[in-house]
Design brief:
This protein is an all-alpha fold and 596 residues long. The protein is 66% helix and 3% strand.
């Protein structure tokens, strides 16, 4: 009896707290007269005078379901395990694409090829990394994240073995293509997993971890390959990577459950609840300009903004207790059943509503076309893609110049293979600083902006975090380019220039991709596909022209061009979208992509 009373009292207290949260959200909407569209959400319910956003009760975006199969409800230990497994896979499989930069001169001699021909080994990996995701993302959405990442990890194992055993240049090119296909999962799967597992206020930090692991693999690869080549053989680098890749495959096999969880599908007339697109249609509306006046509405009116009903409860961070864990079915090697994808309560209804063949065709067609559609038609995705592309290819440009500058050649500093790889340590230090600052700064900027906006967060509030990383890009590339050209002591432009490029190559993509993801919450994989296509297509072009341009006109012009492009996409883009970003989001408010 006493236990029953305590239970009733607990439920009553919970209802009262939920009612208070709901009223706080309604009051925030009244105060701000806010137009709630995708990318605009209520995130704070405690609007006291505290200047510290962390002391407010944060509304969870998206709202977790009641299903124990929902990854949002899994325990922190399981979430940490999954993200750690992803980080290991990303790091290990990204060690090989740029690892041949210290080996460029060796390959020229061994295969009797020119510098441009050796750079094709970079180019084929770049182009396959970009375009393979056109097929990987539909497969991950259709069959689940787990089967796709296991297949890609196995491809990486086989590709590393092939690269270690090649006997000709043509065979090495083929092996690099296969390696790019396997490693392409890094460009999209982990952002999708992060979206499956985390809430809005956690996403910046997790994306920072992803980009840190991604670029750390690119930085560490040349260091290890140079050392192994100097003391044993370049072939042993790829064979050692095979061992690491097998270990990563085993970790994924035993401790990476399926994270795909699609909420019950519905197609409302507009963007749903301002806290989540997965909640029921709101039951009330308010007329702008008349604070406090609420009337029942069942259809969308362009002059009204929908708000959540008082009947549905909104969980906050303090209320949510993630204690469930993956079931045995989540570890299946085959595509997961519908009761996991939609939650057991909704599986039966979904099975009758959608025929499997129709669902399969729609998923494939949607996911193949969606990245191209959002890249061509959505300016926000264009900003994220261009900023990511220019920041990443600033790193590629410096990497391509290493053999030309530090090895045996017209600009030689007389470094051997071992020393040439160690130059990348400066990138590693910069990336570590990016990990420590990019995600936390992005989340802090968004939460601080929401705190000053009466608890309402706009996606554009993250963009303020782009400015310091764009500044690091400018300084880093100017120091590197001028230092190359004027013959400065190498510790100056390596220690300062390379470290700042390592900082910005983690920081810029973290902020830009998080911003696009906030605007289009259902498209994390497709956004990464769009960004990767732009990034790697540009990288493929740079591979063929950069070294020849340097030989003709020196280092300053090519490097400063990369600096200008990155600066324009980050600074000018951020300034434009801080003012006009919400208007651009409003243009796509009725797009079916919000309800995929």
């Amino acid at each position: 009896m006493q236990q029953s009373r305590r239970s009733q009292r607990s439920r009553r207290e919970l209802r009262i707290k939920n009612e208070n949260i709901r009223n706080a959200i309604l009051d925030a909407m009244d105060r701000n007269n806010t137009d709630f569209i995708p990318g605009t959400d209520v995130i704070f319910v405690d609007q006291g005078d505290s200047p510290n956003p962390d002391r407010n009760d944060v509304v969870l975006i998206p709202q977790p379901s009641s299903s124990p199969d929902d990854p949002l409800n899994w325990s922190r230990k399981w979430k940490a395990t999954i993200i750690l497994n992803q980080l290991i896979f990303v790091f290990v499989s990204m060690m090989t694409p740029l690892a041949i930069s210290p080996l460029t001169l060796l390959f020229e001699t061994e295969f009797n090829k020119s510098l441009t021909e050796v750079n094709i080994l970079f180019g084929v990996v770049a182009i396959t990394l970009g375009f393979a995701n056109i097929f990987i993302v539909p497969a991950a959405n259709l069959f689940g994240r787990r089967p796709v990442i296991l297949v890609c990890a196995l491809i990486c194992v086989l590709a590393n073995i092939w690269q270690g055993l090649v006997t000709s240049y043509a065979s090495l090119v083929g092996a690099r293509v296969i390696a790019g296909i396997g490693a392409a999962a890094n460009e999209s799967i982990m952002p999708m997993v992060i979206s499956d597992l985390t809430f809005f206020h956690q996403r910046g930090k997790r994306l920072g971890l992803y980009f840190w692991a991604y670029f750390l693999g690119l930085f560490i690869g040349p260091i290890i390959s140079g050392a192994i080549t100097a003391h044993i053989s370049w072939r042993w680098f790829f064979l050692d990577c095979t061992i690491l890749q097998i270990a990563s495959f085993i970790f994924l096999l035993v401790a990476h459950p399926e994270t795909k969880f699609v909420r019950p599908p519905h197609r409302p007339s507009m963007y749903d609840d301002p806290t989540s697109i997965t909640t029921p249609l709101p039951a009330f509306s308010k007329t702008p300009g008349e604070p406090g006046k609420r009337e029942h509405s069942s259809a969308y009116d362009e002059n009204k903004t929908h708000i959540p009903s008082r009947e549905s409860a909104l969980l906050t961070a303090s209320q949510h207790q993630p204690t469930s864990w993956p079931s045995r079915a989540h570890f299946s090697l085959l595509p997961q059943p519908s009761n996991l994808r939609f939650g057991r309560a909704h599986a039966h209804a979904h099975a009758h509503a959608h025929a499997p063949a129709t669902s399969c065709r729609r998923t494939i067609l949607r996911d193949v076309l969606a990245p191209l559609r959002i890249l061509l038609c959505y300016p926000i995705v264009q900003l994220a893609s261009l900023a990511t592309a220019f920041a990443a290819n600033a790193l590629l440009a410096l990497n391509l110049a290493q053999a030309q500058l530090f090895g045996a050649g017209a600009y030689s500093l007389g470094f051997d293979d071992d020393d040439l790889g160690l130059v990348n340590l400066a990138f590693v230090l910069g990336a570590a600083a990016g990990l420590a600052t990019a995600g936390p700064l992005s989340d802090w900027a968004a939460l601080r902006g929401a705190r000053r906006n009466g608890g309402v967060v706009e996606a554009e509030m993250r963009l303020a975090a782009l400015f310091p990383f764009a500044g690091a890009n400018v300084v880093g590339l100017v120091v590197a380019g001028v230092g190359y050209q004027r013959g400065w002591e190498w510790p100056v432009f390596v220690g300062a220039g390379y470290a700042l490029i390592g900082l910005q190559v983690v920081g810029v993509p973290t902020v830009a991709v998080a911003y696009a993801g906030d605007c289009y919450k259902t498209l994390p994989g497709e956004i990464m596909v769009a960004a990767t296509i732009v990034k790697n297509t540009l990288g493929f072009a740079i591979v063929f022209c950069f070294n020849n341009w340097v030989e003709r006109e020196g280092y300053v012009k090519p490097v400063v061009l990369m600096m200008g492009l990155t600066f324009a996409s980050c600074i000018c883009g951020a300034c434009i979208f801080l003012v006009c970003g919400k208007c651009m989001r409003r243009l796509s408010v009725f797009s079916g992509l919000h309800y995929l």
